[in-house]
């Protein structure tokens, strides 16, 4: 029987509740009254609910009690990251513009100084105090959640604001390196807002890395993406933070008419906990959404992917494929939901989750869902959980390939359906190299 933890027994909860007024005064600066009100409302939600437990349906299979036992300081503490740490996220042979953030704070002296025309970047610390932009932070979609997104909405201080001007065609990708480092246990809460204008095309790659050390770091990130009519966004996320990192990452995408959103999420061994909440809201007709994910878990790592594809209007298409490989004593969770509103006739929506459970003590909880209120749709979903094919292993070993190398080949083949979707060859090569690093290729 799992013992439930009282919120009063969680030092971080007490730190947040007791220090909110002081922290919010520090964060507010010249913020609008609307944003201050939004912060207060979000804080009240969090104070009432606290951190999630397995009593919450969305956290039923993700017990985070063991990650909440230590004390954490709240803040940014954004000292420059080492060149070695940033170097671990560099993608060889990728022609791109590079932006470096440390604990959510843009390091303007690192990466590119000249950015392409049509692209505007601002630290969120500036954007949230801009009267023309503050409205984007006042009506937070993510803030409707009463747990981590409410906490982020209440206490975020910095992050990256991106605006792509209408009609801008930015073929060269932007590589955002999120480096996290701390000398003592720390909780940071970056907030990112991206606005992609009408008919614009944008490609972004995010890499998440963290410094090795004894300190624990909670990374509670909220990203809101506004994709306007006829806009196209290719969004790749590579999570390879190290041990001691606990990551909760919430992304909400709001899509307008005839927009296209492609997401590729790769989670590698390292961080103690990774929880990805990805929500795509297809708010106007003829939108298109593709979600691809690959998670490779090892040790006692817990990786949880929650997705929601919200079909609100007719003639929209979505396709989702997530694959997982569970090693050693790791735990995987997949919960994907496709919601089709009554007005969303002529919807095409497909969802699939496949898993390889290799570790004898590894587990996976997979829960694909369809909730449909329209009657003229084509929707399907499915999930599989299996182990290595003994016939395939025998075939490879009979040809002189060692057992470890044969297993590595089969894992790469299993992952191929996701990795081959990547637009950039250099990124695909980089991902395959990261996978191989965690899967021995020799006997």
Describe the structure.
The protein has 443 residues and is an alpha/beta fold. The protein folds into 2 domains: 278 residues, no CATH class; 54 residues, no CATH class. The protein has 9 helices and 21 strands. The strands form 2 sheets. Strands 1, 4, 5, 7, 8, 10, 12, 14, 16, 18 and 20 form an 11-stranded mixed sheet that branches. Strands 3-2-6-9-11-13-15-17-19-21 form a 10-stranded mixed sheet, covered by helices on one side. Strand 2 and strand 3 form a beta hairpin. 45% of the residues are buried. The model has no long low-confidence stretch (mean pLDDT 89).
Structure at a glance:
The protein has helices spanning 11-28, 33-49, 83-89, 124-127, 135-138, 148-155, 390-397, 403-419, 425-438, and strands at residues 73-74, 97-102, 105-111, 119-123, 160-164, 174-180, 186-188, 191-196, 201-210, 217-227, 232-239, 245-255, 260-267, 273-282, 288-297, 302-311, 317-326, 331-340, 348-357, 363-372, 378-386.
């Amino acid at each position: 029987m799992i013992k439930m933890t009282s919120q009063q027994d969680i030092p971080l909860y007490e730190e947040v509740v007791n220090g909110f007024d002081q922290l919010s005064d520090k964060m507010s600066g010249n913020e609008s009254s609307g944003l201050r009100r939004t912060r207060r409302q979000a804080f009240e939600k969090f104070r009432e609910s606290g951190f999630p437990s397995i009593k919450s349906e969305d956290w039923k299979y993700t017990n985070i009690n063991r990650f909440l036992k230590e004390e954490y300081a709240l803040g940014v503490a954004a000292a420059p990251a080492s060149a070695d740490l940033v170097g671990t996220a560099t993608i060889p042979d990728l022609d791109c513009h590079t932006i470096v953030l440390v604990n959510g704070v843009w390091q303007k002296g690192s990466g590119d100084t000249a950015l392409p025309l049509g692209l505007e970047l601002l630290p969120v610390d500036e954007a949230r105090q801009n009267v023309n932009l503050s409205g984007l932070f006042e009506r937070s979609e993510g803030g409707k959640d009463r747990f981590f997104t409410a906490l982020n909405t209440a206490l975020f201080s910095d992050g990256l604001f991106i605006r792509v001007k209408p009609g801008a065609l930015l073929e060269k990708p932007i590589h955002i390196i999120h480096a996290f480092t701390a000398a003592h246990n720390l909780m940071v809460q970056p907030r990112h807002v991206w606005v992609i204008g009408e008919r614009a095309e944008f490609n972004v790659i995010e890499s998440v890395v963290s410094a090795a050390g004894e300190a624990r770091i909670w990374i509670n990130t909220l990203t809101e993406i506004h994709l306007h009519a006829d806009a196209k966004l290719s969004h790749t996320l590579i999570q390879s933070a190290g041990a001691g990192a606990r990551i909760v990452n919430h992304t909400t995408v709001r899509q307008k008419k005839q927009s296209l959103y492609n997401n590729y999420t790769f989670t590698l061994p390292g961080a103690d906990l990774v929880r990805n909440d990805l929500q795509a809201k297809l708010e106007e007709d003829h939108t298109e959404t593709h979600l691809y994910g690959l998670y490779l878990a090892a040790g006692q790592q817990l990786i949880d992917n929650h997705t929601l594809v919200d079909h609100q209007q007719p003639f929209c298409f979505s396709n989702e494929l997530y694959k997982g490989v569970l090693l050693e004593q790791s735990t995987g969770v997949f919960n994907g939901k496709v919601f089709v509103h009554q007005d969303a006739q002529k919807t095409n929506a497909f969802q699939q989750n496949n898993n390889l459970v290799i570790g004898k003590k590894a587990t996976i909880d997979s829960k694909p869902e369809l909730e449909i209120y329209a009657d003229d749709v084509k929707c399907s979903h499915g999930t599989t959980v299996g182990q290595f094919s003994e016939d395939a292993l025998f075939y490879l070993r009979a040809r002189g390939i060692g057992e470890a190398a044969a297993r590595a080949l089969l894992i790469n083949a299993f992952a191929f359906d996701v990795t081959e979707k990547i637009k950039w060859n250099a990124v695909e090569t980089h991902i395959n190299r990261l996978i191989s690093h965690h899967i021995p290729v020799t006997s």
